[in-house]
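Q: Okay, next protein. This is TauD/TfdA-like domain-containing protein from Methylosinus trichosporium. I've checked the sequence twice, so it should be correct. Can you predict the 3D structure?
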Amino acid sequence: MIELKSRFVRKAPPGSDLPALIEPAERGEPLLEALPRLRSEIEAQVATVGGVLLRGFDVPSVESFRAFATAFDHPLLSYEFGSTPRTEVGGGVYTTTEYPAHQSIPLHNEQAYTRMWPMKAWFHCVTPAAEGGETPIADSRSIYRRMPARIRDRFAPGIVYVRNYGDFDVCWQKVFNSERRDDVEAFCRKAGINWEWKADGDLRTFQLCQAIETHPVTGETVWFNQAHLFHISNLQVEVRESLEDLLGVENLPRNAFFADGSPIPDEMLDDVRAVLDAESVSFPWEKGDVMMLDNMLVAHARAPFKGPRNVVVAMAGSHSNLGRF
């Protein structure tokens, strides 16, 4: 464990500066009142380190957190074409992924499985878990540099994500926020997604997306995909076998392939996950914490937890690479 300050202890790989810690002049200083004097420091740290943790400030409500996020001059984004269940708290603030507490959520950049994603993400700890529940983060530039060249080269043309919506995953009506097929098809055309309506009325989509990307501002190369999350090897062995027997490979809720459509070996994704683990930075949440990330420079995750936990998220700054493919 690396102790940075008396109130902030983290576990991190050597050389990591994530997250930059910013504390108030006096503990309990209202975050919104502190923003004018902190804005330039926050923006500089997010642009270089990739993320900041604002700790010890007074953030009395989710509304106060929302006001802080919107103060950076980007309207908050709605959660469109989502891959996990969330609930909108209001005004562009959402719960984090609503998976069972005993499950971990691996490192990922928000919506890196699409060709349109938010550039900024804010997290606010309303209630820290009694045990666990951290939000590990990792530098996507360092992940790219550490990734073996054989994997970088194989992933470079992109990743194809296949999704079957329905009983075993989020339904298409919730993912596309509509009951109308016309709305779904219009969104898919805009987002560069291929779709197919199946005989049972459910939907299958296919999309070729980036695996490696260039940050539009800094020009740095980042590892930017969710192949390790969508690939069937992310499932527990018994769940994977059951779904393959029940549905067949073509109808699995989600899967990932190389750009040419060929399967990604399980062993290669084991190596990807090992790199992500090696670059992971973790620290316990404190009530009132606010973390701001550049979503391309920094990936995030969720550790299992016990007891009530409430961490909310907001996103802004839509970016796309639709002209690339």
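A: Here is a summary of the prediction. The longest strand covers residues 116-127. The chain has nine helices and 20 strands.
Q: Noted. On to the next one.
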